[in-house]
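User: Quick one: structure for sequence A, then sequence B.

Assistant: Sequence A:
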Amino acid sequence: MSNIEARIQELGITIPDITIPLANYIPAKRSGNLVYTSGHVSALGDKSFKGKIGRDIDTEKGKEAAKIAAINCLGAVKNLMGNLDCIKQIIAVHGLVSSDPEFTEQGVVMNGASDLMVALFGDDGKHTRTAAGIASLPFDFSVSVYIIVEVH
């Protein structure tokens, strides 16, 4: 078992198989030594976070939603590359948080995704980041995350 697989198992995380998108895009694409993912939403298995953060969902649940979206991003990388051992470092984590207009803790919500990357990859998981509040996401999902990773 690889180091990253062992760490994933240790943290009790399951990396999903990514299904074919319902629209005209792909889940992840490699260009040189970088892999870019599409935005992945806050739904995994029987867990789904919908509604506005700060109105329908509190900040702590928002962090969990961001973590789930980031796990889905890793699933897209794994689907494209065959495994996660290919990841040299996490370059960027970008998040869109569907939030109430008065909500200002989008950065705290995105800590769910950022903390996951550092927990899995250590210093190589530290990354640049965007945390933006928006009016809505498709199908009323609460969070959408996309990542850029450097691969070997």
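Sequence B:
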Amino acid sequence: MTGTPDPAPRPVRWAGEGLWITFEGGDGVGKSTQVALLDEWLRERGRTVVHTREPGGTPVGTLIREIVLHHRGHIAPRAEALLYAADRAHHVAELVVPSLERGEVVLQDRYLDSSVAYQGAGRVLDADEVRGISMWAAGGLLPNLTILLDLDPSVARQRLDGDDKPFDRLESEQEEFHVRVREAFLELAAAEPDRFFVLDAALPADVIAQRIRARVEGELGSRS
């Protein structure tokens, strides 16, 4: 046998029951707010919604989240990428896919695009390698829709400065790090325009929420 086969499966958008929506963007762009608003709107319309996040969507993921976001010592960039991938493998297998198979709507705060942006561009690892590890971990599954909230990192930092909670390991990185992350997200969106829905996160929260609802209505209509 010659050569080394690519361990990552071919990417496939979720095509079964349910609807899978991920939210992406830098720290401080308002993802949590928009996930909560969409969650409420969907439930009011009789949808069963699973609101989850990476890392930390499962008990195992909560342990990994504590390491990657709150460990005060150094973590080698490759080790960090592998920890995120481990969380993703367990999360997809144990929570995301079973929920989708029951016909539920999964709203997920971060997925593999965050790994490509944060560990690939932010930590200056090979983005294709980081994506390959994540795709292998997730069995090649991609969401139906990825909502990218885009915001200048300096504005996002001002928002974070207004919070009372301390910064985690990624939030505390220098502005150059967050600029690379933003650029990586935009490149990912440009490469997959059918999956990504990019919104200006500087707009009022209610305007963003209305635009997200309109897009999600279209997604639900196309699957009914």
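The helical segments are 31-44, 59-70, 77-101, 112-122, 127-137, 153-161, 175-191, 205-223. Confidence is low (pLDDT under 50) at residues 1-5.

User: Thanks, that's what I needed.
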